[in-house]
Amino acid sequence: MAEFKEVSPNASLAKQALNWVDNRFPASKLYNEHLGQYYAPKNFNFFYIFGSLALLVLVIQITTGIFLTMHYKPDAALAFGSVEYIMRDVPWGWLIRYMHSTGASAFFIVVYMHMFRGLIYGSYRKPRELIWIFGCAIFLCLMAEAFMGYLLPWGQMSYWGAQVIVNLFAAIPFIGPDLALLIRGDYVVGDATLNRFFAFHVIAVPLVLLGLVAAHIIALHEVGSNNPDGVEIKGPNAPKDAEGHPLDGIPFHPYYTVHDIFAVSMFLMVFTAIIFLAPEFGGYFLEYNNFIPADPLKTPAHIAPVWYFTPYYSMLRAITSEMMYALIACVLAGGLFAAFKTKIPMLFKAVLLGAAVAASAAMLMIDAKFWGVVVMGGAVIILFFLPWLDNSEVKSIRYRPSWNKYLYGIFVLNFLILGYLGVQPPSAIGERVSQIGTLFYFGFFLLMPWWSRLGSFKAVPDRIIFAAH
């Protein structure tokens, strides 16, 4: 049992109260470790605001979600009407609903920017692999949370979007039909589906999400933050002062709390402007078809998910019977490359080549719809392996060959094009472009062990390069 710390009897009431708490709960210790005395690199830039903004939006979503559940009815006959009741009759209900719907899109914007920063500065590299894995798990959880929440308004796009996505699971061999039935809770998307999605959206997934966010932050503060130079400020050879604090670091509070408060202010200005002036955001944040009650007998002319899912939806639609031959060629080429260009025992080469041939045969026998689901899921799962795919000599893009910047720029442009095509109705040209974009997306990651080693790298400085501004 730890000894109780004492304070002077003449200490202020606040100090005495804090001491009483500290003797029973490590409040000051937690504050110092994760805020007051947490030293972060002194060269953080614009890209380092999005982690804090993601935490802010998470709080907004939980708070507004609690108030929405007070009036929402998870019943197929009443759900749409309850949303209209919130919008029209509940005092300030329209504001709460628009904050929640705009917050969903804002969440993905800041998370995508947060992941992009990690990508260009190598924040997934040793010793931060676990931070990245937790982050990818958060992203996966966020996608599940958004998909289940999308059904709840019970509008036309909610209903038919859920119908399309759930039916995709039926394409999985052997277990597909039973899995789809388990998810729906019925043979069609209906009241049972709505109740299941509501339970997962408000209880199960948020609990997992909060646990992952806590793990993400704890892991980050255990090994320290990365920085644009990719220099370790807390390593054994890093310069430190007499008290052991890194010379290239500054306390998170007050320096970065002020930094983040400014970013939060700018964000809230934009966030508020959207809520009051353009909450539907041209039909991207709230589709116009979703203001029509769900009708199982009337299919919308074009069914598309919300914008933040559309890059993956494009990849799903890109996998046609014709595209399968291109994928088979890629698998066989990968098997041949592994067999003849890697330095592994002959037995392993034979196994790799045999596996490539077997996979190609399976791809011919199983319907392309299933492989579309695999590609869509694989586009997210492949992110988990990024720490082991990148073989670059340096972390940050600042010290990589100049052509890397163009490659990353093309990757972002390709992702945006896939997102745009996912919103559009199917077309011959769109299908071809999405197929090329899908191949580039996976090629970027699967070929990373090769291309990340190419070129001449710049010397990484021993200390952080920083000029105050």
Strand-helix topology:
Layout: H1 13-22, H2 27-36, E1 39-41, H3 50-69, H4 79-88, H5 93-121, H6 129-151, H7 156-169, H8 176-184, H9 191-223, E2 249-251, H10 252-277, H11 310-318, H12 321-341, H13 346-365, H14 368-381, H15 386-389, H16 403-423, H17 428-446, H18 448-451
Antiparallel strand pairs: 1-2
* Biggest sheet features: 2 strands, antiparallel
Give Rg in angstroms: 25 Å
SS elements, strand count: 2
Structural class category: mainly alpha
Number of helices: 18
Taking all residues together, what is the mean pLDDT? Answer: 89
Strand content: under 5%
SSE pattern: HHEHHHHHHHEHHHHHHHHH
**Uncertain residue segments:** none
- Please state how the strands of the largest beta sheet are arranged side by side: 1-2
N-end to C-end Cα span: 49 Å
Shape by Cα distribution = globular
Query: Approximately how much helix is present in the residues?
Result: 55-70%
Description of the molecule:
α11 crosses α17 (428-446) and α16 packs antiparallel against α17 (428-446). Helices cover 63% and strands 1% of the residues. The mean pLDDT is 89. The chain is globular. It has helices spanning 13-22, 27-36, 50-69, 79-88, 93-121, 129-151, 156-169, 176-184, 191-223, 252-277, 310-318, 321-341, 346-365, 368-381, 386-389, 403-423, 428-446, 448-451; strands at residues 39-41, 249-251. 30% of the residues are buried. It has a two-stranded antiparallel ribbon with strand order 1-2. It has 18 helices and 2 strands. By secondary structure, it is mostly helical.
Fill in the keyword field for this structure.
two-stranded antiparallel sheet, 2 strands, 469 residues, mainly alpha
